[in-house]
Amino acid sequence: MTDKMFAQLTKVLSPKRLEHSRGVSETAAVLAAKYGADVGKARLAGLLHDCARGMPSNILLQVAAASGIVVNDVEKREPMLLHAPVGAMIASRDFGVDDPEVLAAIRWHTTGGPSMALLDEIVFLADYIEPARSFPGVDRLRELAGEDLPVALLAAYDQTLSHLLAERRLIHPATVEGRNALLMKIKN
């Protein structure tokens, strides 16, 4: 990451979102070092993961359409979910990131998915447990993240699904598929 890239990021993120992104970046770096992923890629993906989060829903839909990003029915109803795939496109186009692993980690950080690589899993979990996050159960997730990555990921998926169910919100199919794939992997 360059100073220029960081300065550019400060123009598109609120101070609070920028602080969250720093927290995700640092947490992802720690997890990458622990679980054998590339620390630099984890740090970069964590920092840029929300680079499209400041876009309003209508703009996310427009950018997704203009970029050829396929939008499913859940994303049409919950366009903010598109900040992840749109963010991957923006990280490439506006921040000059050409590493497919970093772009994939940005792409999957919100919903998760069935075929996530180690870096994807690390950024997904780091987004959950970075130091500024505060919700019931986050301390337990942080403990699990330090002990067993798949178990921590499963707990994060479960937490997400419980929250969405309690609020009677739509569930992205990639989240269900990701949890199922992880559960089968753990049980095998």
Query: Main β-sheet, in a few words?
Result: none
Total number of helices: 11
- What Rg do the Cα atoms give? 16 Å
Average pLDDT rating:
96
Q: Helix coverage percent of residues?
A: over 70%
Total strand segments: 0
Backbone structural class: mainly alpha
Shape: globular
Q: Give unreliable regions as ranges.
A: none
N→C terminal distance: 38 Å
How would you portray this structure in words?
By secondary structure, the protein is mainly alpha-helical. Helix content is 70%, strand content 0%. It has eleven helices and no strands. Helix 2 (15-35) crosses helix 8 (118-129), helix 3 (39-48) packs across helix 7 (100-108) and helix 10 (149-166) runs antiparallel to helix 11. The longest helix has 21 residues, at 15-35. It is globular, with a radius of gyration of 16 Å. The N and C termini lie far apart (38 Å). Its EC number is 3.6.1.41. InterPro entries: Diverse_Catalytic_Enzymes, HD/PDEase_dom, HD_domain, YqeK. This is bis(5'-nucleosyl)-tetraphosphatase (symmetrical). Residues 17-132 form the HD domain.
SSE order and pairing:
Elements: H1 3-12, H2 15-35, H3 39-48, H4 57-67, H5 73-77, H6 83-93, H7 100-108, H8 118-129, H9 138-147, H10 149-166, H11 173-187
Helix pairs in contact: 2-3, 2-8, 3-7, 3-8, 4-6, 6-7, 7-8, 8-10, 9-10, 10-11
